[in-house]
Amino acid sequence: MSRKIAIIGGGNLGSAIAFGLIDQSFIQAESLFVTRRQIAKLGTLGERGVNVLSDNLFAAQQAEWIIIAVKPHLATKVLEEIKSAITPDKTVISVVTGVSLEQMRKAIGEGPALFRAMPNTAIAIRESMTCIAAADAPESTQKEVVELFNQVGQAIIINEELMNSATVLGACGIAYALRFIRAASQGGIEIGFPAEVAQLIASQTVKGAASLLIENKKHPEFEIDKVTTPQGCTIAGLNEMEHQGFSSALIKGIMTSYLKIDKIPTE
Ligand SMILES: NC(=O)C1=CN([C@@H]2O[C@H](COP(=O)(O)OP(=O)(O)OC[C@H]3O[C@@H](n4cnc5c(N)ncnc54)[C@H](OP(=O)(O)O)[C@@H]3O)[C@@H](O)[C@H]2O)C=CC1
Ligand SMILES: O=C(O)[C@@H]1CCC=N1
């Protein structure tokens, strides 16, 4: 990509995006500007040739595309800080939870194309699921933004009303899936494996299950039916998990996360 990109807020997600983009060679390291106040913590990106700095305005002045990746309560402040650098030809993409396109427009003013994107931390290894919502952006710019996030996983356009749902299912979802793997590993240790072997088996098995659905595009129960031998051990274990509230716990957790989003301070 010939454009320059600035990532304002190089924390967990901002850095993950940076690593994903340079590892995929989507952008040259020297065309990427990543900011945070404690720049020493961006050392690894700096060693890879990325411009690491604490001057948000300078970073935004250099780039055509500006990705905002600070915590929700800092988003408006940061947008106002870099406002003078956001000329109408630029594209601003916020990955901030709970900050609407309308709030962004209010902080920046009319002109630039605005997007909200909700990737997850697997973006660092180019395996993100990213949901994107656009405001007043030409079709061609929307395509470019989807293309950017397709470089580092799978990206789709959604209506902004679904952005909180996308946050929970896609971004928080990484943590839910990892907690499943941790629990499976702990069970694996109890039935005989050393911890690292249990984790490998649990992780690769989850990867395989996800890949079956993504490649075959069938309902999970279709694949489960292939595993559950009548009177076998799989159905016995699955039924016990459901008696203990497995699916119900997950759905209730998803709803709790969803209801929490509107309570996250964005000012
Ligand atoms: N983590 C995740 O899985 C996901 C997070 N999100 C959203 O992404 C955003 C970032 O989350 P996350 O990466 O986890 O949070 P982090 O706290 O890890 O990252 C935010 C970064 O912003 C930096 N920062 C704070 N103030 C400024 C400033 N004035 N100028 C520039 N940088 C600043 C902080 O570094 P320093 O203190 O050194 O300045 C910090 O590293 C949040 O809005 C979150 O809701 C969305 C999807 C997934
Ligand atoms: O937990 C949070 O609030 C953010 C949003 C999605 C992932 N992390």
Automatic annotation (TrEMBL):
Protein's name according to its UniProt entry: Pyrroline-5-carboxylate reductase
Protein family according to the UniProt entry: Belongs to the pyrroline-5-carboxylate reductase family.
SUPFAM superfamilies assigned to the protein according to its UniProt record, in alphabetical order: 6-phosphogluconate dehydrogenase C-terminal domain-like, NAD(P)-binding Rossmann-fold domains
Record's catalysed reaction(s): L-proline + NADP(+) = (S)-1-pyrroline-5-carboxylate + NADPH + 2 H(+); L-proline + NAD(+) = (S)-1-pyrroline-5-carboxylate + NADH + 2 H(+)
Pathway assignment: Amino-acid biosynthesis; L-proline biosynthesis; L-proline from L-glutamate 5-semialdehyde: step 1/1
Binding of NADPH, residues: 56
Chief site of localization: cytoplasm
Matches recorded under InterPro entries: 6-PGluconate_DH-like_C_sf (IPR008927), NAD(P)-bd_dom_sf (IPR036291), P5C_Rdtase_cat_N (IPR028939), P5CR_dimer (IPR029036), Pyrroline-COOH_reductase (IPR000304)
Gene Ontology CC terms: cytoplasm
